[in-house]
Specification:
3-stranded antiparallel sheet; elongated; Double Stranded RNA Binding Domain; two-stranded antiparallel sheet; about 20% strand; alpha+beta
Length: about 140
């Protein structure tokens, strides 16, 4: 049995669909940063994956800079100092992205303000208007 990345209890991605490469991290790190490849690029081809069509459509519809025109999702992880931690972080971020893309928003049902709230709003406006009207010039 091949190792799998679990999205939900019934949706999993085989590890052979994920491609990752080790790259050098950006930022400060002294002499070590120039010789250690601890950052990770995780590539996931959405179109060629074994996900259902629903998941593919939702992922490809995302307006995300990490998604290329070819349908390849690229996640760069460089938060940690070790390659293993960065790989685990990239996989977790992929799982979160897929879960977030598949959540269906609840449709908003338009509501009307209550009569009491409308009356309170209008009373507050008229009160404020009388306060401002009282600021005028006074004639004796």
């Amino acid at each position: 049995m091949t190792p799998m990345l679990t999205i939900t209890s019934n949706v999993q991605i085989p590890d052979d669909e994920l491609q990752w490469t080790a790259i050098r991290s950006q930022g400060a790190g002294g002499q070590n940063v120039n010789k250690v490849s601890s950052a990770v690029h995780l590539r996931f081809d959405v179109r060629a994956s074994s996900l259902s069509d629903f998941y593919k459509e939702r992922l490809l519809a995302l307006n995300d800079s990490r998604l290329s025109r070819d349908g390849v999702l690229v996640i760069k992880a460089q938060r940690f100092r070790t390659q293993e931690q960065n790989l685990a972080d990239a996989q977790e971020r992929l799982v979160e992205l897929i879960r977030a893309a598949t959540q269906v928003e609840k449709k908003r049902r338009p509501t009307r303000p209550t009569r009491g709230s409308q009356e309170r709003r209008l009373a507050g406006k008229s009160k404020r208007g009388t306060i401002k009207a009282g600021r005028g010039k006074v004639d004796f």
